[in-house]
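DM from R.C. (forwarded with permission)

"hey, sorry to bug you on a friday — could you get me a structure for this? deadline for the figure draft is monday and I only need the backbone to look sensible"
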Amino acid sequence: MNALNVVVLGHGDRRLDTVYSELLAPSFPPDQLDTLADLREGMESGQAHVLAAVDKVGRPLGTAIAEWYEEAGIVLLAYLAVDASYRSQGIGGRLLEAALQDWTDRFHPKMVVAEIEQPSSTVRRPEWGDPRRRYAFYGRHGARALDLPYFQPALRPDSEREHGMLLIALNIHPSAQEPGGVAAAPVVSFLEAYFTATEGRVPHDEQGSSLLQAAARTETIAAYVIPHKLH
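My reply, with the result:
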């Protein structure tokens, strides 16, 4: 895959339909996936930013999608997906590295965060990926898992919260680094903004309150290094 290029897609790019239908939709459970209309709206507003790894004829083989939460100073890596026929060829790693560099240069965030399933999670469908392999993949790229009772909010009124998740941090800026963890303030700000954008408000139910209280309990959120290899 030496001819692979990473390009930025604008909201009017016709390849976005291919990215959504051939890369995102097959790779994520429905409750973890935004609609194409929501993705386009986010791109038009400047919150969503889409990169695609394309072959020599411009066909998307992988994608990395960011959501920028400016007030928190945090980029959410919302999606990273590679065509199932081209997995285990290094495309995901090259795409992630290119995305992290682009978003660091573009947004100057305090950190980039992502949501992944707990490594102990059951493989629900092969095309959705193996949680253990995904966990190790991010470990190889320097990710640290935040010590929070994390779950993904319901992305739409007709979807459910996704439990059994981890919030991980990559490319942590020195200003957000703390001994043994990361600064809590930007993470709390991100969570409040994320839940407001998805569920319509900061959560006050037991699960949501527990998450926000855990994040805001001290000035530092403990974070642990993710192993590079599967055990």
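R.C.: lifesaver. Helices lie at 15-27, 36-45, 91-107, 131-140, 184-199, 206-216.
me: no worries. Residues 35 and 44 are 14 Å apart (CA to CA).
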